[in-house]
Design brief:
Elements lengths: L14 H4 L14 E2 L2 E2 H8 L28 H16 L4 E3 L9 E4 L12 E12 L2 E5 L9 E5 L2 E7 L5 E7 H14 L4 H8 L3 H19 L6 H13 L24
Antiparallel strand pairs: 1-2, 3-4, 4-5, 5-8, 6-7, 8-9
The chain binds zinc ion.
Length: about 270
């Protein structure tokens, strides 16, 4: 059982993650897409399945949520994590945050090889916190919520991150290169921050800003066509998580997922 705000035990550092060669950068980061909407959304809907999670594209409001700490690790959370890995592989990504599948919890998954057979490279970060940053480096990023869009972002060159794994075990990792970039990108997601926001802060977003309205119009059409979850189904999913104790009860009254889509106009 994980308690919010509890002390991290620290100590265990998965060896493989630390030894990542930077050569695994598959730049530009791949992402299958059709008119800006991830195929994962379309294909699952075409099969008339009701997946528990799906990758939500920009400008879905979930991408602006500030996620809450995970309060409990159970079988349901483990199966959600498995689904997140599967969606990430389908979309040929190397990292996926819970807010990207419209879950308001502080959790992300990473496999820097993007290869589902490389299970030893799968890492789950629960309630992650970047506790140290060192140096600065510019590198290209992409995002499964903005398929096909890439841009240079300045990140810390080295980070130390603390988190819990799926066994509820606290760990600490010192990361650099691609791994450091991925965990900074994914941690940002848990605070509702996209890489395009970082570019805007740096004054380098002119090119990506021109492309965002296209994502907005594709998204609006997808909502009209029922290809993106309704507010009601997202709320039902969150209520279920509150009922099962996986996220704090006060989240049921949180306004962040209610109403409609204030971020539509921000592009
Ligand atoms: Zn992203």
């Amino acid at each position: 059982m994980l308690q919010p705000g509890g002390e991290l035990a620290g100590g265990r550092v998965p060896r493989h993650f630390r030894q990542l060669p930077c050569a695994v950068i598959p730049g530009p980061w791949p992402g299958r897409h059709l008119a800006g909407l991830p195929l994962t959304v379309l294909s699952r809907r075409c099969l008339e399945e009701e997946p528990f999670v799906e990758i939500v594209p920009y400008p879905h409001p979930a991408l602006r949520w500030k996620a809450k700490p995970v309060s409990q690790i159970d079988a349901a959370l483990r199966s959600t994590v498995r689904e997140m890995f599967d969606l990430m592989y389908e979309a040929r990504g190397i990292g996926l945050a819970a807010t990207q599948v419209a879950l308001p919890i502080r959790l992300f998954v990473v496999n820097p090889t993007a290869d589902p057979d490389e299970t030893e490279e799968e890492f789950v970060f629960i309630n992650p916190e970047i506790v140290r940053r060192k140096g600065q480096v510019v590198g290209e990023e992409g995002c499964l919520s903005l398929p096909g869009l890439y841009g240079d972002v300045t990140r810390a060159e080295e980070v130390v991150i603390e988190a819990f794994d799926l066994d509820g075990q606290g760990f600490e990792m010192k990361l650099d290169d691609l791994a450091a970039r991925v965990v900074q990108h994914e941690t940002d997601h848990l605070d509702g921050i996209l890489f395009t926001d970082r570019m805007r802060q740096e004054g380098t977003s002119e090119r990506v800003d021109l492309k965002l309205p296209k994502f907005v119009s594709v998204y609006e059409q997808a909502r009209r066509d029922g290809l993106v979850s309704s507010d009601e189904s997202i709320k039902a999913r969150i209520d279920e998580m509150v009922r099962s104790g996986r996220i704090p009860e006060d989240y049921a009254d949180c306004d962040t997922y209610r109403g409609s889509f204030p971020s539509l106009s921000e592009a």
